[in-house]
Design a protein that fits this description.
Elements (H helix, E strand, L loop, with lengths): L2 H15 L15 E3 L18 E7 L5 H9 L1 H6 L3 E7 L2 H10 L4 E4 L1 H10 L5 E10 L1 E5 L14 E4 L5 H12 L14 E4 L5 H7 L4 E5 L2 H7 L3 E5 L10 E8 H6 L1 H20 L1 H16 L5 H9 L1 E3 L5 H13 L15 H9 L14
Length: about 375
Amino acid sequence: MPANRSFALRRGLAVAAALPLLALAACGYGSESKDSSSDQKVAAGSEKTDGLDSVRIGYFGNLTHATALVGNQKGFFQKELGATKAQYATFNAGPSEIEALNAGSIDIGWIGPSPSINGYTKSKGKSLKIIGGSASGGVKLVVDPDKISSLKDVKGKRIATPQLGNTQDVAFLNWIADQGWKVDAQSGKGDVTVVRSDNKVTPDAFKAGSIDGAWVPEPTASKLVAEGGKVLLDEATLWPDKKFVITNIIVSQKFLTEHPKAVEAVLKASVETNKWINANPEEAKAAANKQLERDSGKALPAEVLDPAWKSIQITDDPLASTLGTEAEHAVKAGLLEKPDLAGIYDLTILNKVLKAAGESPVDAAGLGTS
C-alpha cells in the first residue's frame, strides 16, 4: 500500500478515535463546506417570502441528498421562495452542518439521522427540528469476492465504515452484534476489524487491498463495485418494508419560529421536487449528477451513477420509527447514552403541504411536537 494512502488511513483512524461518544457524524466526506448557490433567476414580479432576502440551505454532495441536488439544479426552491434568494452551501460531514445551523450560517439542511439525533440531544432539544423526510436506503456492504463469499466470511476481516459513530458505523456494529460476534466499538477491534475510513479514500484502500470490504452509502458503494467489489448485503433488507431513513430535513428552531412561511415554501418545493424525481427518474438522475459536477467539479460515471441511483428511494416521509431504532442501535453499541428524542419532529407544516397536494400525512412515531 502506498505510503500516502497508509498515512491517510492512519490519520483518519486517529481522528475518529478521538471523537466524543456523542459526536455522531453523517455519511459524509469530511468537514469542509462551500458555497453552492445556483444561477437560478428570480421571476419578475415575485415578492419576498417572510420579508427575507435569502434562505440558506445546506446539503451534502451525495446522491442520498438527491432532493436538494435536484431542487437546486432545477430551480424548485427558488421558484417557491419568489424574490427571496435560495442560497446553498454543501457540506462533507454532519458535525460541520450542525455547527453551521447552530451558528445561523444556514437555516435549513438535508442531513443524516445520526447528526440529527446528536444535534438535538446535545442542545437538550433546543437547536433543531426534523421537519421532513428525503430519502431511504442507498447503503450496502460491498466486499472483495476473492476474500469474502458469504456473510459468515466477514468474521476476521477488515471492513471500513465512514466514521466512528456515524450512521453506517452504528448499523454495521449492530449487524455484527446480531451475528453473535464481539467488537469493541471505540477501537473497532474484535471478531471483525472495523476500519473508520473517510469515504473519499475508501475506494483506494479497497483497491490497494488494505480493507476487505466496506459498509458505506452511495455512491461510495457503487464505486467499490466498479473496482471489482461485490454487494454482499443491502442494508434495506434488514428493515421492515425495506425502508429506513438515510436523509432528513432539519431546520433551526429559531428560523422555524420566526419564518414559518419560508419553511413552508422550502417544504413545498421539496415535495414538488420529490414528486418530479419519482415521475422522471432518468431526467432527475441526470440533474442530480449535473449538480454534483457543479458542486465537486466531477460528475459520476454511468457505471457508478446508475446502480447507486436505483438503490435510493426518494420520499417525503421521515420514517420516524426507524430513526428511533437507529438511536437504540447506537445506545446498544455504547456510542450514545440513551437519548430523549421527544419533540425532535415537527411535521405540522409538512403535513399541511401534503394535504394541499392531495397526499397522505406522515407520522412522527410518537416523537413529534405536541
